[in-house]
Design a protein that fits this description.
Blueprint: H1 2-9, H2 15-27, E1 45-46, E2 52-56, H3 64-67, H4 75-86, E3 107-111, H5 124-140, E4 146-150, H6 152-164, E5 181-183, E6 192-196, H7 201-204, H8 211-227
Parallel strand pairs: 2-3, 2-4, 4-6
Antiparallel strand pairs: 1-3, 5-6
Helix pairs in contact: 4-8, 5-6
Amino acid sequence: MELLHAAVVSCERCERLRTYCGEVAREKRKAFREWEYWGRPVPGFGDAGARLWIIGLAPAAHGANRTGRIFTGDNSGNFLYAALYRTGFANQPTATSREDGLALTDCYISATARCAPPENKPTPEEIGQCADYLDAEWGLLGRKRVILALGKIAWEAALALAGRQGCAIARPRPGFGHEAEVDLTTGSAGVRLLGSYHVSQQNTFTGKLTAGMFDAVLARAKALMGAEQ
């Protein structure tokens, strides 16, 4: 896993994304003038022995692109880690920097794209460039039982990932929805894909995704994890 993280951090595959992340890191946001921005691709974070694997969209320009840890330093992360703390996956409810002491238990988090994209919209080609990092995580997370996809793009990336790993995907292709659920069983290993609205502030500030709704998804993940041990 450490070798994979090092490969992600040193990735230079997407010129548009690397240029954008560098520009943001130099210009900064006024509130973070004193920060030395990370400005590089952001690796996954969490427990390598996790049964729950959460896949998001991409680092935020002034969140993970600033702090260097996925979902850290922005409102999306505030919502996500508070929920993980309530449900026993995190040792604390806040995430502010790589040195804040946050640790995850039985949970690992990564993203569909590893660089912050302009307007939070990676292109299909950029998503494809990161696909082998998801493939590598699939192999390394040997105890995974539930993949929680945050948003439609992560859902589609997870289905594509499962297909590359030899999972039989139902036809027609399962559509994304909050609390959608798909069996990704391959060989002797049972893996379930769950969907949730993304934890973005566009969803959480408007009430499209509430704390109770997200807690229910995590509770379902826990139930599946227990059933699949």
